[in-house]
Amino acid sequence: MNQFVTRAIKDIFKNGYLNTVAVTTIALSIFIVSAFGLFVLNTNDMITAWKKGIRIMAYLRSGISNEKLVEIEFKIKQHDGVQDAHFISKEEALIFLREKMKGQSSLLEDLDKNPLPDAFEISLALSLKDMTDIETLAERIESIPLVTDVEYGQVWLKRFVNIFNLFRLAAFGMGGLFFMASVFIIGNTIRLVLYSRREEIEIMRLVGATERFIKIPFYIEGFILGALGGLIGIIASFLGFLLVSSNIFQGISSDLFMIRFFPSDISLGIILCSIFVGWLGCYLSLKQFLKEY
Amino acid sequence: MMERNEKAAIIRMFHVFKRFGKKNALVDITLDIFKNEFVFICGPSGAGKSTLLKLLYLGETLSEGQILIEGVNISRIQRKKIPLLRREFGIVFQDFKLIPTKTVFENVALVLEAKGKKSSVTQKKVKSVLRIVGIEKKLNAFPPTLSGGEQQRVAVARAVVGEPKIILADEPTGSLDIVSADVIIDLLDKFHSRGATVIMATHNESLPNKINGRVIHLREGHLETLTAGRQD
Ligand SMILES: Nc1ncnc2c1ncn2[C@@H]1O[C@H](COP(=O)(O)OP(=O)(O)O)[C@@H](O)[C@H]1O
Ligand SMILES: [Mg+2]
User: Higher pLDDT residue, A113 or B6?
Assistant: First the structure.
């Protein structure tokens, strides 16, 4: 095995220019795809955080008996996507309002009757992905008897999520495109190396070398190119991330949401993917080349 | 007599034909080559000498007939097993076929590495063979820096390092001066006397005089004279 690795490394240095181009291509592809990926990852985090904050308020007709309340609560909780429903009596609501409007409370003090309705505050399960799901849920809750009205904020989020989904699609598309481009470049590099060494390959065959013996160094070469490109790409992405996050995006982070880099398993996955690219490029060109010569 | 020959025959060819399109390169060749023989295949250029050697190591596939090597019908050998057949042979070419980017040592060691030999074994074996062919001082030289005679000595070293049963030499002296040619012939004779079967193709009719071997003549793909039995 050792001799194969030595042979592969020697080859990489012998074809320094070609291999530099190959590694750079992979690294650059990973950098660009990572930039998109990081945008998608963080935006997704942000949307999740916002969604967590979304509540549906279901307002009730006044003077509902306790049994009825239990029934309504049960009905609300029956719906998919409802995580919890918390009853807020109109008294509690008023106290909350007074608390909020301290200083101007004279406005409320004069009230001889509580104008607020009883309500259920409904928190949503994170499984609710689309804003349309939230809309449907709200409509269903509204149709429960004795519920007079529902309210949920952040309608703008719907638009935002739609745009975001487009971005995510674009990120996947670009990922696929760069993947293919990288496979092509690596495949081409290996093919050129193979071509420059077809005489050597012929001689190896004549002295009884198996196809496996001939192929292994090329696979190792593809592996090293892929791993190197992946590593450099990820490191470059991380440095870029540090630069951008420390300057521009600091303002966006909050308690609910922290801007972040890929977790280690995804980073590792990207490098593995890059190694796979190296292997695949190698596999394809070897398959073609050894058939021809 | 026949029985004894069969036992000793390392290569048997039965009515072998090789065609390239309409061209008949070899026509109805039936031939036995015996263990530890030194066989010259003589004939003018284009007679089919190289083609005959190629058929043996499956560099080409025959069009008709059968070839048995150590009793194995080589047409039946699977593609994947061809390298194993090639290891039965050591091959020397007119144009040496050394890898120019590898050192003398690496060129010879390649054979043993391909067989998966341990590197300590390889080191020892390669050095000893290079000593026998008298090129041990140029271990780390690259082939293009060597003379033709030296390169062919390296090629002979490569051919014998795996201790093959059969050495095939296709015009091994064809591009060498007389002195270098004699060295190569002597080397092949040396490995012949150590037990190898040697088959040498040459268009030089006087070459066989130097060595006590069997001479087979090829002309336009036909076997001209068949001297049966051994002459040693
Ligand atoms: N790959 C090939 N394709 C077509 N014709 C070939 C091929 N190899 C050899 N021949 C023809 O077969 C004949 C024998 O060739 P070869 O065995 O090389 O002769 P020799 O080695 O005796 O000079 C020649 O006429 C040559 O042109
Ligand atoms: Mg020839």
Answer: A113
